[in-house]
Design a protein that fits this description.
This protein has 21 helices and 11 strands. By secondary structure, the protein is of the alpha/beta class. The protein has a domain of 269 residues: Aldolase class I (TIM Barrel, Alpha-Beta Barrel), CATH 3.20.20. It is globular. Catalyzes the synthesis of dihydrouridine, a modified base found in the D-loop of most tRNAs. Specifically modifies U47 in cytoplasmic tRNAs. Catalyzes the synthesis of dihydrouridine in some mRNAs, thereby affecting their translation.
């Protein structure tokens, strides 16, 4: 009882252990230093030119000596790390692949950025006839970019292809950790709806490849949307038109809840909650130009204790959104306080018939899910965010209506699936292996918080309880419970081989704030 009162997971006494001593933290290198090291590393034999690796021919690279990468094949072979176990998932890497054995080539991903479109975006030469016509209609002249001849366009409102979200298990869009390999794992474990990581409209409109990568979709994602974030109706409308043209998505979600300063200071994310007229213009412009549903993700308000989103719910439907998801916290609260589900219910009851309302916040067991579904029949469904990071099999638990006392071996198999999906997505050369490792470590900075059901005095675990130090029922379970990055690295080495020399890892989110996968 006293553990629960302190928001600590009530682990059975026989499994508790004294907390380990704190470890020494190295100081950070400057950006300049890191850049210098990257440049040197590019030139080293480690970084073989991909053209030469692919063909095995030293003369294959069109850049010759201007190439930024190494052309020394023999030196590369001499230092190449040992191959990983297993067979290569698919392969354009040739000699650089870390699975020398078998190679099959397959690609089940769509929504890549077409090179010609990218060049036109770079030169500001893409036209947005639908967006511009709609903005004109709403009396919102686009803010000036380089002038392109005005070809006016009549907009014929098309029938929306609606999606029924009722009862579907929806994995929330999550920055950093909600990447394509992680979403595939959640699909295997029972998620119905997935959504890409938040992408910034301005970066997409500039043709930034790294931002477009956030829109990629795996063929296993059968009900899939992308989430975009922008501060102005013209940028959002143009982005929606571009995505509609270039990508296959089932819905487009507009983020109006992200709490990060850099987003809020630009007037996007949760800053929009303070500007209802801007919200109106964005939603009207976006929903008027595509036949895909436009969904909106909001928080309860900007400042704590001044919840105002309930007064906008009817309008949000009126303006043309088909779905609104309410994250039951204000911007100010970020992730600290428990989500306010009573307020979410209040909003759901105010929604017009045509607007589906989804709730989001703290769901970590099938009982939480059931409680919200029965507590408010007006709620279409709930979105699951951090709960899925700590425990991706929550989708299985909800579908099977049970607490799954999963073994450490079964959890390791889930990590193996992640690695397979990661190497398929990021590549099976050394760079792909290390990218997969990096994102897996980010994920492991959440998964260690899961406490096995069989170790609990009180079931189920709540998301806001902190795990104490404890021993698992076997060595692997104990290792998986460690909050130390050195142990997360050990787990990564079990699946991806040894880390490169001098490797360190610090998670993006600070564990003292307990939660940083920004999910607006």
């Amino acid at each position: 009882g006293e553990l629960v009162a302190k928001a600590i997971v009530p682990v059975k006494r026989e499994f508790l252990r004294p907390p380990p001593l704190s470890t020494f933290v190295k100081e950070k290198k400057s950006k300049r230093q890191l850049k210098r090291e990257r440049r040197q590393e590019q030139k080293s034999a480690l970084n073989i030119c991909s053209e030469i690796a692919k063909t095995g021919n030293v003369n294959a690279c069109p850049y010759n000596e201007k190439c930024r990468f190494s052309h020394d094949l023999e030196a590369y072979k001499a230092q190449k790390p040992d191959d990983l176990e297993g067979s290569c998932p698919f392969c354009p890497y040739g000699l650089a692949c870390r699975f020398s054995g078998t190679h099959k080539k397959k690609n089940s991903e769509i929504n890549g950025l077409n090179k010609d479109v990218q060049k036109l975006l770079w030169k500001n030469k893409i036209r947005f006839p639908k967006a511009d016509a709609k903005l004109k209609l709403l009396g919102l002249e686009p803010r000036p970019t380089k002038k392109i001849k005005d070809g006016s366009l009549k907009l014929h409102p098309r029938e929306k292809k609606l999606i029924d979200f009722r009862e579907k298990l929806y994995l929330a869009p999550l920055t950093t950790v909600g990447n394509l390999p992680f979403r595939r794992v959640c699909k295997m474990l029972g998620a119905d709806v997935t959504c890409g990581e938040m992408a910034m409209c301005t970066n997409l409109l500039q043709g930034q490849a790294s931002e477009w990568a956030l829109l990629r979709r795996h063929s296993a994602e059968d009900l899939f949307g992308v989430q975009i974030c922008g501060a102005y109706p013209d940028t959002v409308a143009r982005t929606v038109e571009l995505i509609d043209q270039e990508c296959e998505v089932d819905f487009i979600d507009i983020n109006m809840g992200c709490p990060i300063d850099i987003v809020v200071n630009k007037g996007a994310g949760s800053a929009l909650l303070t500007k209802p007229m801007r919200m109106k213009n964005i939603i009207e412009a976006a929903s008027g130009i595509v036949d895909k549903p436009i969904t909106v993700k909001v928080r309860t308000g900007f400042l704590e204790g001044r919840n105002r989103v309930d007064s906008l719910i009817a309008d949000i439907g009126q303006w043309g959104a088909n779905v609104v998801t309410i994250h039951g916290r204000s911007r100010q609260q970020r992730y600290s306080k428990l989500a306010d589900w009573e307020y979410i219910y209040q909003c759901a009851r105010k929604a017009p018939e045509a607007l589906q309302v989804l709730g989001n916040g703290d769901i970590f067991s099938y009982l939480d899910w059931n409680k919200h579904k029965s507590g408010c029949p007006e709620l279409s469904t709930c979105m699951i965010a951090r709960g899925a990071l700590v425990k991706p099999w929550i989708f299985t638990e909800i579908k099977e209506q049970r607490h799954w006392d999963i073994s450490s071996g079964e959890r390791l198999n889930i990590l193996k699936d992640y690695v397979r999906c990661g190497l398929e997505h990021w590549g099976s050369d050394t760079k792909g292996v290390e990218t997969t490792r990096h994102f897996m470590l980010e994920w492991l900075s959440y998964t260690y918080r899961y406490v096995p059901v069989g170790l609990l005095d009180v079931i189920p675990q709540q998301l806001n309880w902190r795990p104490p130090s404890y021993f698992g029922r076997d060595d692997l379970e104990t290792l998986m419970a460690s909050d130390s990055a050195a142990d997360w690295i050990r787990i990564s080495e079990m699946l991806l081989g040894k880390v490169p020399p001098g490797f360190t890892f610090a998670p993006k989110h600070k564990s003292n704030a307990y939660d940083r996968a920004e999910n607006g």
